[in-house]
Amino acid sequence: MVTDVDQVDGGATVTFTHEGRTRVVTADWVVGADGARSIVRRTAGFTATETAPTAAALLGLAVLDDPANAPKGWVRTERGWTVLNVNHADFSRIITFDLGGPHEDHRRPLTAEELQETVDRFAGRPVPFRDARSLSRFSDYSRLVDDYRLGRVLLVGDAAHVHFPLGGQGLNLGIGDAIGLGWRLALVARGQADPSVLDVYSRERHACAAGVIANVADQRERMRIGVDGDRLRHELGVLLEDRDRNRALGSAISAQSQPAPSALQDAARGDFAANTVIETDTGITDLIRLHVAAGDRGLLLCEDASESVRAVVEPPWGERVRLIQARNLGPTTVLVRPDGEVAWSGELGDGSELVARLAETFGGSARPCAVDECRDSLTAHGRPRCRTNVEPPPEARPARATDADGRDRAAAVPDPFAGGGPTRRRASTGWSCSWWPRQIRPAPVSLRA
């Protein structure tokens, strides 16, 4: 069990106990994935924005004595709501939402007797059950850290964000955090990317979580009891009668409102990269096969993969991006991140916009160069004159070493992606769960009470 995290020069120390012994380890990077009561978050000094709870919810599994006569689904009562997912043959899920105020002591263990009394009181009649288990309390309390990165310590999952658990969106967020951090941290750990890419991770995932928390708070408002709640639900019902609005509102909760465009050429920044047929200079393939073959590198797909384009891309980013000549994309150039998200899409033009996006996505610095020089370099034959204007910072360049014969070689750095297995790309599942819908994400808001 982790008991303390402390930042030191070039890393962090982690103090933990195991089998009665206290140990201290030093690591280059520490990732706190230790849940809502994260010790890493607390001891490392992360700050967070919170909202106080206003509701008290109870949850449990139990066998209903008379499932045929139990209140099924969502049932509004004078006090709040009961939600019973009735199972006639096995355990049913039982939830009560008391909107009259928060738990007096949310850490007090829930008993079967308290759950039974609450269900009966809300339903206005006995709803007997037996063999209650998996009992817990929760509320509409929310917390979002102000930054997912603090020096050498990063957070993912519930350690970074908690909210009213409606729709199971917290799990989706945590998976997205892990996907968004993994490839970036691997590049940084191998010296192939500037640590600044971890700040991009923080901004990106913070915006995702803020959107989810705002959406969940909106759903909580629609659960209100009384005239105001009735009015809100009536207005929502009218909206849901329209098929397009119904689909948009529903997908905002299921996180499916960001479908991959049918054509890769139509993809915009933040879209999922749709699998599509790619015509390369060596034959016909598709995006998923190229993505798997690229391993932990991104893909740059463009019609023009000439030496001049390679000279712009490969010196700084060759170990992080695989350049693919895609003859069937027309003038559109598409940059796909290792997690399957489109980082940039557009016509190559003078190359300056692509260079800026490469630097932001994979680390490195893009020194200012004249637009005319870039344009000349990408339209003339041979190596571009502006290639020296783009270079990664020294700390992002792979370390060099000398072998037994005195020849220069790259220092051996462990590759977390080597060996295949489950860390390879997700060809069978596509890119689901990796990005909260861009179209419906609201602007970040202050969540302080």
Automatic annotation (TrEMBL):
<dbReference type="GO" id="GO:0071949">
    <property type="term" value="F:FAD binding"/>
</dbReference>
<protein>
    <submittedName>
        <fullName>Aromatic ring hydroxylase</fullName>
        <ecNumber>1.14.13.-</ecNumber>
    </submittedName>
</protein>
<dbReference type="GO" id="GO:0016709">
    <property type="term" value="F:oxidoreductase activity, acting on paired donors, with incorporation or reduction of molecular oxygen, NAD(P)H as one donor, and incorporation of one atom of oxygen"/>
</dbReference>
<feature type="domain" description="FAD-binding">
    <location>
        <begin position="11"/>
        <end position="215"/>
    </location>
</feature>
<keyword id="KW-0285">Flavoprotein</keyword>
<dbReference type="InterPro" id="IPR002938">
    <property type="entry name" value="FAD-bd"/>
</dbReference>
<keyword id="KW-0274">FAD</keyword>
<dbReference type="InterPro" id="IPR050641">
    <property type="entry name" value="RIFMO-like"/>
</dbReference>
<feature type="region of interest" description="Disordered">
    <location>
        <begin position="381"/>
        <end position="430"/>
    </location>
</feature>
<dbReference type="InterPro" id="IPR036188">
    <property type="entry name" value="FAD/NAD-bd_sf"/>
</dbReference>
<keyword id="KW-0560">Oxidoreductase</keyword>
<dbReference type="Pfam" id="PF01494">
    <property type="entry name" value="FAD_binding_3"/>
</dbReference>
<dbReference type="Pfam" id="PF21274">
    <property type="entry name" value="Rng_hyd_C"/>
</dbReference>
<feature type="compositionally biased region" description="Basic and acidic residues">
    <location>
        <begin position="397"/>
        <end position="410"/>
    </location>
</feature>
